Amino acid sequence: MAETRGQTLKRFFDLYAQASLAGDIETIAAAYAPTYIESSPDSFAAWKVDDAYRIALTEREKLMKTHLGLSGLEAELVSAEEVAPLHYLVTVRWSMTFDKARTGRVTSTFLGTYVVKMNGRTEILAYLSHESEETVMRRDGVI
């Protein structure tokens, strides 16, 4: 039996989470369109997925693991709505577990909404964070 759209999206974000935790930069980079946008309440960026982007991913991965003790990352698919042919608005609840928080082990959760295109391959065109990642980590004592 073929996967449903929801199952395909769940598998996509689960693989993304596994790659992020493992530091698999190529899998993470391949999840995005060649250029995509990212926004949160306190930031906005347009990213080109190139060698400089991969270097930034590598630096972020080292920070998250070495300094903050990222030890777990899970994606819960909250919703997926087709908004145009082959384009979906996908909301994911992320749970990130940090071993080096000020009070010990902490799990921070936050929502992100993605514009995803599914046309032979699944790719992220835009990412919208519902909260500032930094604010969430400060709230939870991670930083």
Give a verbal description of the structure.
- With 143 residues, this protein is of the alpha+beta class.
- The chain is 34% helix and 48% strand.
- It is built from four helices and six strands, in the order ααββαββββα.
- The chain has helices at 5-22, 25-30, 51-67, 133-139, and strands at 32-40, 43-48, 70-84, 87-101, 104-118, 122-129.
- A six-stranded mixed β-sheet has the order 2-1-6-5-4-3.
- The protein is globular.
- The mean pLDDT is 94.
Number of strands: 6
Count up the helices: 4
Low-pLDDT segments: none
What number is the mean pLDDT?
Answer: 94
Helix and strand sequence: HHEEHEEEEH
Please give the alpha-carbon distance between the first and last residues: 45 Å
> Which structural class do the helices and strands define?
alpha+beta
Beta-strand residue percentage: over 45%
Radius of gyration: 15 Å
Oligomeric nature of the chains: single chain
- Overall shape: it is globular
Order of the strands making up the biggest sheet: 2-1-6-5-4-3
| Helix proportion | 25-40%
Largest sheet: 6 strands, mixed
Main attributes of the structure:
alpha+beta, globular, 6-stranded mixed β-sheet, 143 residues
Concise overview:
By secondary structure, the chain is α+β, with helices and mostly antiparallel strands. It has four helices and six strands.
